[in-house]
Amino acid sequence: MLSLPERYDHNGQSIAWGKMGSGDPLVLVHGTPFSSQVWRRIAPLLADHWTVYFFDLIGYGQSEMREGQDVSLAVQNPLLAAMCKHWQLDQPEILCHDFGGATALRAYYLNDLRYKRMTIFDPVAVAPWGSPFVAHVRQFEAAFAGLPAYAHDALLRAYLQSAAHKTLTEQALQVYMTPWQGDVGQPAFYRQIAQMDQKYTDEVEKEYAPLDCPTTLLWGEKDEWIPLERGQKLAGMLTEGAIKVIPDAGHLVQEDAPEAIVAAMFLNNASAG
User: Whole-model pTM?
Assistant: First the structure.
């Protein structure tokens, strides 16, 4: 497990973060419904070559969760910009996934945050997105938040497994389930789903063009949350069509093929050198 011993006050909300390693700065940005623990098997391998920074988004993981909280994409890119300023980072490398990818792109276009290099995989970035389940939770958030624990746990387990192509280990399931359990975690889980809204990616999608830094796009071949065709569409906008397809990996590439992410990072590092 990654250790997040530090706390940053962002607009009155406690944000959990940590860092490890030495070298040039590299910021990791997780997606939904996960936490920085998606990097627990990846960050230690990168820490020999980078100073690796990681944090939990607003309303996720070990960061503060509370009733009435705005946890939408609208608040996550200002957080990323604020964290980079707090860490005194100027153009760090960035590795991002899912909503983390959306957050990094929004920070680039809306907050003028700049990166030395971006490695982005299976991001929520192009329309359309959002499942019937998301729409249902948005309509009946209070009912879902009030589910008996056993029903919530069964739903949560099935939802998380659907992100991966391979069967998640019980240990991995517990890592991802724990923040979303209990009197605080359960309503927080449905809160973040209810606040998912395509308008936040529509806001920047029209601006997409190759970034002013080297950009690597990876995609899980078996991603059932965001199909490969969506990745190919994004590649046409950001990377002049270049996309690295990861075989036998679903949306949660960190569990299905963590070695592919690490290999891409070191390949990028070697080519830059």
Answer: 0.97
